[in-house]
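A common beginner's mistake is to predict each chain separately and then try to dock the pieces by hand. The better habit, illustrated here, is to supply every component at once so that their relative placement is modeled jointly.
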Amino acid sequence: MAGVVRMGAEPDVTVGPGTVAVMPTGGVLPPGADAVVMVEYTQEAMPGTIEVTRPVAPGEGVVRADEDVAAGAQLVPAGRPLRAQDLGMLAAAGVTQVSVYARPRVTVFSTGDEVVPPDTGKLRPGQVRDATATALAGLITQAGGEARQGGIIPDDQAALEAALRAALATTDMIVISAGSSVGARDETAAAVARLGPPGIWCHGLAIRPGKPTLLAECAGVPVIGLPGNPRSALVVFRLIGMPLVYRAGGCTSPPAEPVVRARLARDVASAAGRLDVVQVRLEDGAAEPLFGLSALLSILTAADGYVVVPEDATGLGSGTDVDVTLYR
Amino acid sequence: MAGVVRMGAEPDVTVGPGTVAVMPTGGVLPPGADAVVMVEYTQEAMPGTIEVTRPVAPGEGVVRADEDVAAGAQLVPAGRPLRAQDLGMLAAAGVTQVSVYARPRVTVFSTGDEVVPPDTGKLRPGQVRDATATALAGLITQAGGEARQGGIIPDDQAALEAALRAALATTDMIVISAGSSVGARDETAAAVARLGPPGIWCHGLAIRPGKPTLLAECAGVPVIGLPGNPRSALVVFRLIGMPLVYRAGGCTSPPAEPVVRARLARDVASAAGRLDVVQVRLEDGAAEPLFGLSALLSILTAADGYVVVPEDATGLGSGTDVDVTLYR
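With all components supplied together, the output reads:
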């Protein structure tokens, strides 16, 4: 039992043939000692003599100086949000300032003569409160971005272009919650096309809901034109916008979304060649699909998560095991 | 085709025998119309005469005024954090202010003569930087709380009691990152016991790491005394502290943690009657357990998530399918 160190608060004592020293937690091993035993496993057999009541192996209770992190080793990898334990590791190493990516500034515009601010009291016939911009701000924040409200732009191509152009200079990403009528969509596309190269990547995605989505890049700023229906807009932004926000914030490994496995409670139809996003409610471990018009936000608020029907499937049968991505 | 409304921007036109009116998206159905068709599915056959080029069923393209949410219905349930779509639904209904729970104030104390602040440059022998308080602040924030640093209290029962007593009046929850030596633990317990009824619920949990955990309630404020090892402290706080923070913030349904199913790459030993929390790294869909002293933070920073070995198990064999809770 040579060189056992006892942790505790009593004065030093020695016992033959080994040395039993007393030291505080986190101290430096005294010369000659090669193990530490907790004071609970010792007793003072007689004054000045301590008995160690359990076997102690060399190295026990001892942490080498480089055992947690060796000099020169990476403390925390780049490309992911700092987790609680990463902050702890940095603090332990005395690193209290780290360079991080700035939160990407994402400006959200709503378009449409019929769209009015959420704080509008009584609506006139045909008016609709802007639900999408507020919800998008939530998703942008969740992905590490800083959401900025660009306001509601009337159906006027010149006004939209001017607003977008002003935002280009001060923002890292632009999101347009576009009117869903074909005229409004054309106006959005025309305004975006004039912002600068390379311009519009695509206009229309094989996804439901979310088909009339516009993806563009203008003067180095990604621009997403979302469908006018709030539900379609939120579905598309989750799948396409949030990964872009993460990436713009330097996050190459976005945190995992919570997923549960569940049995589909009813048949879900889908067209081959199209990705379908189906909202589901979880009930007793079964995933109950929620159907309804893409204009209905209540489908989203009632949902616990969603199921993606892959492009090559023509639907999923009742009883199929599916991955449900849960909302947080 | 009686009563079909065409959406678009052209002047009104009429076609017999039904009526084709032109209206903007989101408008109110004109009298006599019972369906809406998109302008894409119409063409002007001759001046003043419009042809609808696809069959239209009554009710198509029309949303009833109460179809999304009926008057008097619940917009968003209480007890969970507001999700993006919940914010959208509230905005759509014109609700721009909602009563929410305040973020619970959680004060974190570190104890121990050997503990020094993270910004301490060169350490003297036996000193250790306070990693736990910083990491706990991350977990508290993640659970919706407002983390407050109570500072580092020396191993002095009176000083600790005074600091805790002062915090009781201004905080909703107290967390003590306690010295792990039995003396320090006793001092923490003694200080907590004098704070007020009902006092200490338990001192010691059948969990590894995290055995020397103290749970108390003093004058209505929950008090958690965590083990001194940073890794043990973080493991216990995730399992016990975060649910308390969620609850104190009015969140009765905390958001789900992301979980993946993986095959255990190696045997994991555990004692029956004890919950074991094993850190794992995911490699090619397999969960590789990370073993090491509970003092090592690097185990936590290297881990992608953790596996819980239930109390009744005496270990898990290599190849077992396990649920890995992922860190975010």
